[in-house]
Amino acid sequence: MSEGCLATCAECNGRCCAHYLVPIAGYDVWRIVTGQRLAPELFVEAIPEDQPSANGFRLRATGTSYTLALRHQFVRRGVRPCVFLVKLRDGYQRCGIYNQRPMVCQAYPMQLTADSIAPRSDMLCPPRSWDVGVMDVARWRKQLIEMEIAWALYERVVRCWNETFQHEAAQNERSLASYFTYLVTVYDQLELLRAIPDDDLYAIVDAWPAQSTSTWQCLLATIDTRLADILNKP
Amino acid sequence: MLTGADIWRIASSLQVPPASFLRAVPCEDGTGFALDTTTRRWHAALARNNSKERTTACAFLMQLDATARCGLGELRPRSCQLFPVTQTHALISIHDQGLCSCRSWSLGDLDLSHERLLLERIAAEQQRYADVIGGWNALVAQAKQGSQFTLTHFGDHLIKVYDALDASKERGAA
């Protein structure tokens, strides 16, 4: 859900906030932790993966990998609303962290296509809620690509975490709290997401989905160098 | 205590009608708004969540285990923004210390110039709200004897008046 679309969502009863398990990246965790001054344990759930993915982090050298999702409130009348969903009178519901809501919530229900954007096939919005023909497609596309960049960055942050203890004994287990501390420490020092020059971002947006452009490769290399600097600091 | 500016800011930003987050509280000093042609007056306050899990908590309070956060953030009412500061006889003071369970406050914790600016803004918004309430009460007084109004009627009127005020402010700025 992007800027200017609250009117589109205003009459909805927040189905997306109750139905989905909302995947979040390290940047989302960091923004909510710093914006709300909340401990990650209060709003993040670690979801075990059946198959390890690129953003699946481990808590021991071998074994289960996990992804992160927003926690839900307890089940009430068969519904498990997001932990941040605020219920008002007359059926109105609103996100209680609207300015810091995760990137995937900001982008919902749109997804990138080769040269434009389109509603997701599993969209829960009422029919005809979204008309790409009258939307600011360029702005949405830029936002969706920024989200892709944030996830690419998170994959690297996860890979660095997993690599730090891959040679440790299998029985050595780290806590989820230590992973959260790692995330907040790394993102405290990573200015990249806030500092990608507009020209670079537009070069990536213009070339999307071709990810072999020099700007994109350069960005990934910068991310890797910056992460190595952060993790090698005494 | 809410002002019309608080109600308008929350309702227009969240795109919800005022009645979805307000409750009417009886007002004893006669400064409130009327909902009928009698002399009874009301204040608007944030609704409370009366669910079993969160008895009488503010409707915007998000409960996260033992921790809670305001779901309004920057939109929260001025009086919440002002807390723990209060004003008595034009002097800045601090609320009854018993309200905070995790800390105490002293004047050294406050940015007094910021608090003074906020208090000035609140005073201006209260004055404007009093004028708007005066206009509403005059309309109610003209209604047929025995007419009943609801918080929805008052809220809709408020939004209309503050929308117009906002539009004229924008025209002035242009």
Which stretches of chain B are low in confidence, meaning pLDDT under 50 for 5 or more residues running? none
Q: Which chain pair has the greatest contact? A: A-B, 23 and 21 residues
In one word, what is the shape of chain B? globular
Tally of DSSP helical segments of chain B = 4
Gyration radius over CA of chain A: 19 Å
Helical content of chain A, roughly?
40-55%
Number of strands of chain A: 7
Quickly give the structural class of chain B: alpha+beta
Mean pLDDT of chain A: 86
Q: How many distinct beta strands of chain B?
A: 8
Oligomer: heterodimer
Your description of this structure?
The complex is a heterodimer of chains A (234) and B (174). Chain A has 234 residues and is α+β, with helices and mostly antiparallel strands. Chain A contains 9 helices and 7 strands. Chain A has helices at 6-9, 15-19, 26-36, 103-107, 137-164, 176-189, 192-195, 198-207, 214-232, and strands spanning 44-48, 57-58, 65-70, 85-87, 93-95, 110-112, 117-119. In chain A, strands 1-3-2 form a 3-stranded antiparallel sheet. In chain A, strand 6 (110-112) and strand 7 (117-119) form a beta hairpin. In chain A, helix 3 crosses helix 6, helix 5 packs across helix 8 (198-207) and helix 5 (137-164) runs parallel beside helix 9 (214-232). With 174 residues, chain B is an alpha+beta fold. Chain B is 40% helix and 18% strand. Chain B is built from 4 helices and 8 strands. Chain B has helices spanning 4-14, 78-82, 112-142, 151-173; strands at 22-27, 41-46, 48-49, 57-58, 61-64, 67-70, 85-88, 91-94. Chain B is globular, with a radius of gyration of 18 Å. The model of chain B has no long low-confidence stretch (mean pLDDT 90). Chain A binds chain B through residues 6-7, 9-10, 36, 38-39, 42-43, 83-84, 86-90, 92, 94-99, and chain B through 14-17, 19-21, 47, 49, 59-60, 62, 64-65, 67, 69-74.
